[in-house]
Specification:
This protein has two helices and two strands. It is of the alpha+beta class. The chain has one domain. A hairpin with a 4-residue loop joins strand 1 and strand 2. The termini are far apart.
Length: about 80
């Protein structure tokens, strides 16, 4: 990825291509790492939720209940 930013002035339609400063580059790198961490956490959360749902459905089946039975009961 190039270390540039693009600024567009909507009033004049002027476009500027500006090199990033060292601080901006470091911030972009830190932001990218943080985004990867958040995405990994979301993936784990979704996996845990799917596992919990599967366990709950298994328990319901063991009791002889279906999701439709729960809906009929208002749950």
């Amino acid at each position: 990825m190039e270390n540039i930013k693009i600024e567009h002035n909507a009033q004049t339609d002027e476009i500027k291509i500006i090199e990033l400063t060292e601080d901006e580059i470091k911030q972009n790198e830190a932001d990218g790492k943080k985004m990867q961490e958040i995405q990994a956490q979301l993936k784990i959360k979704r996996q845990l939720e799917a596992e919990a749902k599967a366990r709950a459905q298994g328990k319901l089946e063991a009791l002889g209940l279906t999701a439709d039975d729960l809906k009929a009961l208002g749950l």
